[in-house]
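Hi C.,

You asked whether I'd gotten around to modeling the 656-residue construct. I have! Everything is below, sequence then structure, no commentary in between.
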Amino acid sequence: MADKKSTRAGKPPSRSTVAGKTSGKDFRLTKYDQYLFNEGSHFRLYEKMGAHPARIDGADGACFNVWAPEAQKVSVIGDFNRWDAGSHPLEPVGQSGIWHGFVPGAAKGMIYKYHIVSRHDGYVVDKTDPFGFYSEVPPLTGSIIWDLEYVWQDGEWMAKRQRHNPVEMPVSIYEVHLGSWMRTPDNKPLNYRDYAARLADYVSDMGFTHVELMPVMEHPFYGSWGYQTVGFFSPTSRYGEPQDFMYLIDYLHRHNIGVILDWVPSHFPTDGHGLGFFDGTHLFEHADPRQGIHPDWDSAIFNYGRKEVQSFLISSAFYWLDKYHADGLRVDAVASMIYLDYSRKEGEWIPNKYGGRENLEAVSFLRRFNEEVYRAFPGIQTIAEESTAWPMVSKPTYIGGLGFGMKWDMGWMHDTLFYMSKNPIHRKFHHNQLTFRMLYAFQENFVLSLSHDEVVHGKGSLLRKMPGNDWEQFANLRLLFCYMFAQPGKKLLFMGGEFGQWNEWYHEVSLDWHLLEYPFHAGLKRLVGDLNHLYAREKALHEMDFDPGGFEWIDCSDSEESVLVFLRKGLSPEDVILVALNFTPVARFNYRVGVPRLGYWREVLNSDSGDYGGSNQGNLGGVAASGIPFHGRPCSLVLTLPPLAAVFFKGEGEAR
């Protein structure tokens, strides 16, 4: 029996209709649809699959399509038939494995599931719609008949997006978990629409260019933060209806903020109502647990070699880019997809046909995914969370790459947080943790990420990772952010880090916004905003993020005093920024550094400014270069390097 009973009275409508005269769009799958689906090449399945309000033979109702090739019988059950499995059987569509039917009286807002009787072992189950557009609020698990009608007002943004190349543009991403970014006084999450103005105002003021939303796709366990996805076509109903989510993205676009969605094609939970063992067989996942079960998350792994699964997943990607106007997809856990032995011991995995550990089907899938989404949606970006040294993750497929636009730099994150956690007196012994990155910095199109993963599971907040007393902890965190913004690569910062949360992030409560009443926290937030605006304003800091010509060491060897000095350069010779970072609490006076040109070098940012909570030491607005050669350069500056601080200078003289 179904787990959901209708409270509606009255006689159930007549049995489902497979054929008939339609009014409006026809949601029956053509033979060509079936061919593309079974071939793995149907990337807009959401236009036909799932539940769609329709009018057939003069009757209002809904069309249903579900893939269950090993089912003996499939029926749709719901509010419209008192959850009676015998009322509305579906009919098979050719040899495609898809079942179809039209149910008169099934209307938008009604709850439904598929009742599946398998050919195998008497298996009977009620399943959520894999293509459902809207879901009941968990822990309820029904799908809801819904439409995707919405009047978008972001035409200017969408047109502009296609004309700009993000590789040469500033990209500074604010990573957000919607349900805990801000809550009501009684600790309830806001509606998508309530978040819109609050988030847009805050992100605009702070100067971030993009918001990255941790997975909003429906998930039964809130503590998974969305990474255990059940609804690959359904934004979570915890925060409102699909159109509410559309409004949030629309509003952000109208305020010139891009939206990146976390997308999880790497695995899915084994909850009984979900994709697992869907029709009495391992339809979406591998049958062998050595391939089909993820040992870390106890979740199911997609069978990327199955053509229909490829159609399903790429259609999901298309769906969020098409129907929700997302500007990019950050693909979670790519390493777990491309390595067969990921997190497995010897004997717990099956080698590929060549005896290797590479998941050839997953690699092929990722390449095709990237090719297809870039072809269909010019101007978007795909970003890989990939934690290994797999080559060319963010390079084109035609030269052997995986085809992603960008990749998170996990190595930079680990090395830098390790270094910054050290007492400054010991940092000189770990200087290479800072300089090593430049040996590989341009092998990929990197995003420097300080994400949610670094502030959970006992790791402590970013602020608590910093050594020293309160003043030194804030100074160190300001220095860390300056170092991130000065390095080549795009930027990502998880919410709360920008104003110095003391506590680890916890998904059940709001950020500690009250901390902004205190000067150190307010000063840190002001610095992050100024860094974002400087990064966007100065071409030298973003234009050549992925080009070795955009970076030049001045001095990377002063480990004794824990100082780094380097240049960032734009495409024009006029665009040059000098960055000097002092990783000790001792101010360095009369510190000479070589520069490529005479003229005045204006101090455009100093993280030790009193406005940020610093000690207010610096260079009185700038320094004139002398003709004294130093560091192999024809000219030099004599600087004051404040304690635990970074200073940025813009060259305003003539190159020599």
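If it helps when you're writing up: The domain at 216-257+265-405 is CATH 3.20.20.80 (TIM Barrel).

Thanks,
B.
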